[in-house]
Amino acid sequence: MATRRLRPMFVAKRSYRLRRLRDGARMLPFLGAFLYVLPLLWVPTGQTRDLARDAVYLFLAWGVLIGLTALIAARLRAAGNDADDPASAEDAE
């Protein structure tokens, strides 16, 4: 019987983390849409809206989305720069 070469059960940590960062970047628009619709859901029927509170919330949500995007972009950029490093070639195997 010929022996089959066994593939590793898990992928390298670096490539796994890169994939999860990319997945997180792809989910940000959906998170943003949810955060922007959320103020419509929290006002009970029959009450008036507090537009000042809603405006503050929307700007805070916008700031959080910008911060998350900057963080993910910086980590992806750093990971891309590490890919050019020959010392990290062992992770690619």
TrEMBL record:
Ranges that cross the membrane: 24-43, 55-74
Keywords, in A-Z order: Membrane, Transmembrane, Transmembrane helix
The protein, known as: Uncharacterized protein
